[in-house]
Design goal:
The chain has about 280 residues and is α+β, with helices and mostly antiparallel strands. It has helices at about 5-35, 45-70, 105-125, 180-200, 205-210; strands at about 80-85, 90-95, 100, 135, 140-145, 150-155, 160-165, 165-170, 175-180, 215-220, 225-230, 240-245, 265-270, 270-275. It starts with a helix and ends with a strand.
Length: about 280
Amino acid sequence: MSKRGQFTLFVVLGILVLLLATLFFVFKDDLFGFVGIGGELSYPSEIQEVVDHVQECVDASSADAVFQIGLSGGYYDLPEKTYTDDTFAYPIPYYLYDGEDLSLSSDDLEHELNDYISVLVRSCITLEQFSDFTITEGAFSAQSFIEDTFVEAEISYPLTVAVGENSYTLPETYETDVIVNLGLLRSVAQEIVRADIADPQSIDYTSLLGYGLTKITVAPVSDDTYVYVLQDGSVINYTFFFAEYYSNLVSDAECVLDLDCENDFSCVEESCVEEEE
């Protein structure tokens, strides 16, 4: 064979190899799916209903847990020191108690949220409705990851579904994201507590405005307790509660803060004084 013929053969073979490689990468998912490996797992429609049911519970329950936990200051299992009043839907945890910082850490908040999500997801899932299948459950666990503007939830819940002579291993993990600024509000609450510990005699309203939230309400709910209500709508409307206890607020003073006085009055040396126009 001449050198020109050999060169032509190599060119043709090279083109064929390139063409086959291109076809492989374009259709690899279909090929792997045909032989039962790689790609996303695919199930018969009736089996997929089980997967969809679990995922729907994970999505809805995680969102419910994230939004509800803000109303109880980040707690699912409330601590001993809480403020209870019929005015509020939930008991409110003290983040500051007589000078002690009890604010919830980021890690502790994740643990509380994990417990809350676990309870809601487990109560949502009803495998009994799939009575035609034999379903074997593995160990259940929930893990959340809280950032300033969103929460990731990852549920581990392995299931094996048997129907007739066939058996299917379903996905072991289910994931969802909740777009909410829970992490940010927890951080703001902790900063407020630290500022109030440093200066327990006054509330720096200028500093509160500096956090950039939609609204911060400081409510004197008793002789010794203030409730903070943090609200923000920069990502989505979200509310976070916590309380502060001061034993030294119980005194004969007419006021401690301007909030203790009526409109157009300010607290001056423990007395409400009418503001000058």
